[in-house]
């Protein structure tokens, strides 16, 4: 079983980093987005956003750290930097949702989808150059 995993891992890490980011990030995004949508059915979008970030930050940090960037070094330091990134992103996300939902009258789900698409490049660059850099 371990031999099979190693073969899959060797194929995986043979792919370009940006492709790995899109695949891992796509998985993380789907989990986060559908969690947000489900929570938003139960609570205000502000609370749903906070809970989604709270629950999905660890998934994102650890999958990005290993499966995309193959980061070495202090997990604690990288974790703290990545959490800082996500704190900044949630603040920008709140502002963007407020503008798109309350001012432009977009649906909550569409507004969050738009923000997610636009923030992808920013998150990639922050992870690559700051959070998981060598």
Keywords:
mainly alpha
Question: How would you portray this structure in words?
Answer:
- The protein has 5 helices and no strands.
- By secondary structure, the chain is an all-alpha fold.
- It has one domain (16-131).
- Helix 4 (75-103) packs antiparallel against helix 5.
- The longest helix has 29 residues, at 75-103.
- The protein is elongated.
- 19% of the residues are buried.
- The mean pLDDT is 94.
Briefly say what this structure is:
The chain is mainly alpha-helical and 134 residues long.
Question: How is the secondary structure organized here?
Answer:
Elements lengths: L1 H13 L2 H24 L4 H24 L6 H29 L4 H24 L3
Residue ranges: pLDDT <50 for 5 or more in a row?
none
Q: Tell how many strands the DSSP assignment holds.
A: 0
Distance between the termini: 31 Å
Query: In angstroms, what is the radius of gyration?
Result: 16 Å
State the helical fraction. over 70%
Main sheet summary: none
Structural class designation: mainly alpha
Written as H for each helix and E for each strand, in order along the chain, the element string is: HHHHH
The averaged pLDDT comes out at 94
Strand content: under 5%
Describe the global form.
elongated
The total domain count is 1
| Number of helices in the DSSP assignment | 5
């Amino acid at each position: 079983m371990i031999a099979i995993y190693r073969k899959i891992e060797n194929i995986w890490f043979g792919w370009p980093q940006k492709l790995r980011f899109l695949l891992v990030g796509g998985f993380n995004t789907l989990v986060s987005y559908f969690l947000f949508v489900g929570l938003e059915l139960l609570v205000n979008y502000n609370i749903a956003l906070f809970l989604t970030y709270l629950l999905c930050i660890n998934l994102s940090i650890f999958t990005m750290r290993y499966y995309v960037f193959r980061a070495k070094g202090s997990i604690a330091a990288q974790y703290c930097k990545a959490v800082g990134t996500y704190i900044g992103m949630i603040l920008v996300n709140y502002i963007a949702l407020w503008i798109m939902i309350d001012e432009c009258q977009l649906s909550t789900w569409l507004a969050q989808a738009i923000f997610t698409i636009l923030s992808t490049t920013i998150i990639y660059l922050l992870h690559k150059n700051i959070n998981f850099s060598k």
